[in-house]
Amino acid sequence: MSKVLVAMSGGVDSSVAAALLKRQGHELCGVTLKLFENEDIGIRSARACCSLADVEDARRVAAKLGFRHVVFSYAEEFKNDVISRFASEYAAGRTPNPCIDCNRFIKFPRLLSRARLLGFEYVATGHYARIECDNSTGRWLLKKARDISKDQTYVLYAMTQDELAHTLLPLGGLLKSEVRRLAEELKLVNAAKPDSQDICFVPDGDYAAFLEQVIGVNIPKGDFVDSKGNVLGRHKGHHRYTIGQRKGLGIGLGEPRYVIGKDPTKNTVVLGAKDELMSSGFTAKDVNWIMFDRLREPMQATVKTRYRQPEVPAVLYPQKDGVLVKFNQSEPSAAPGQSAVFYHGDTVVGGGIISEIIK
Asked: Taken in order 128, 134, 137, 138, is the CA torsion positive or negative?
């Protein structure tokens, strides 16, 4: 059996993942990542992510299962690589995904590095996804979880071959209901703990208020315009709107209007009818390929441009600095700054950051 460093958030998923690994005979050490001080980012809730209560829940589970637990602090790294990027991307008119950045820059690379320093062979998390080795190519593959409703491959697409080779995901073959049942059978302290739904450092979901009041992002009000530049009304700051948004615009125009574009240099938000929202595809940069080292020829795939969005069929075309994605039929425009993840069946082909929308 192996020595495994288990990431434990204090939630039920990572706790059951640890229990399964313990049952398999691995030598474990639990670790909770301290990514920020709640007070430093305007959070007062005792149950917010990274709270003392979460650390204590993780510690109690580790004690019950019979292995030690430690806390690693990456607050400065998290601030630089996740929170600061979150703020700068919104200020630039893009829509970032901080959960992906956390996995990419903090959770997997830094946890694996620390594990190796301490003599551990693997890291493990409670993510819902599967990792397998393709014996014909020698490459490690990232595959969808058995429980498709909980599948988290979208936020894991940036994992490297080295990270995939040294990561264990014990929940990939389980349903969420089975995980809850196991937690109850084991009488874990957090068996009934609700799942986290929001960005960890914005637990109330009001990211605009967080940017303004905590980070100090100051974006003034500006004009709503149509695609021809005609002024339709006033917006409350372009960072409060994202491509495809229809509700919560705060403007009545007699018929449904969607956010079809943003221009941060002019501080305008462009509104249009649904047909104006449609696009033929997009380009993506900063691409991480998993199935192969690079895309050499056009490939049919399915594409997901938001975590909870269904995949749609498209063709991937290699480009020197990324990939061109052409939908099989017109689809609603994606949001620049968001991640696009490409699939071949249940296997992640790769993914990248959406850079330009193609009408």
From this structure: positive
